[in-house]
Write a structure and sequence with these properties.
This protein is mostly helical. Helix content is 72%, strand content 0%.
Amino acid sequence: MSTPEPRRKGGTFAKKHLPVLYNLALGTAGGAAADALDLPLAWMIGAMIATTTAAVLGLPLAFSRPLRTGMITVLGVMLGSAFVPELATQIARWSFSLAALAVYALLTTAASMAYFRRVAGYDPITAYFCAVPGGLNEMTMLGAALGGEERAISLTHAARILFTVLTIPIGFRFLEGYDPAARLAAGQAYFANGSQDVAILALCAVLGYFAAQRLRLPAASILGPMIFSAAAHMTGLTAAKPPAELVAAAQVVAGSAIGARFAGTAARALLRLAMHALSATVIMVVLAIVFAAGLNAGFGLPLPDLILALAPGGLAEMSLVALALHADAAFVSTHHVARITMVVAVAPALHRLLPRSWRARAEPQAAD
């Protein structure tokens, strides 16, 4: 009996890690090009465009979940630094917009689900979990467990984030008089922080992440560090921010991860999913603008901040857009945290309100 040849470690390493390295290299190149063109949120948007294009063309791309998690904790610490001590007096003003956010989430879910059912022709479970505005990982896992099409749900949410992050900053640039020359770096110079500040920020990232994981909070990699960082900044323990270079690297990793989600999907199927996702995103963005205009007229809250707070992008992505566009990042990130928390907590319960025949129709798919 012949002895099987031992597996070559080098080949296994290359197969596992080269697609990740390709993705990061493309993302970095795309980010640098976007930065040279003075695009808002250049490193993330450039990385998304470059890697999504490569994925559609069939290049073998992948992303590292541990690397993305680590970099997202950096963004969480960065967002927490926006919670300055003076913010405590303003939080009470946000109660109206947070209440409106719940109504907005319900309306967008209903309107988007109607689109996915009647126009896209998705089954009820897939349509429902594609329509819920938030929690990409959570909605994908829940939808798949209940019989929905996992890839359709995952790609729809990835496309929603992609379209929102691409269009909102560019829209602000042309409609709101955004000046790229005045763009502030999201962070401090690399050596601006002392050793004590570096230690505090690092502890916020590490302790915040593990605490959020232990408590099973949604979006733990960004939410936990953001909460710990916000506490450190609001109590005056530190006023430091992560280095701008590290924040730019985190943007590249986050943007490249979005693009890599489209790898391995046939171009024709991807185009169909993308068109339906784009249509649903338009519905969500239009409703966000309508709600923002109403809150602006009724309570005097800044319209740009409200649009960014309600826009159906990801927590990390839209909070970074807020930083890039000089909006109130604390206001924006708080609303996205509230949206994700509501969605993750309420979506499974609302699913039970669907007609019994719809839920039964999806059960055979769950066993496939």
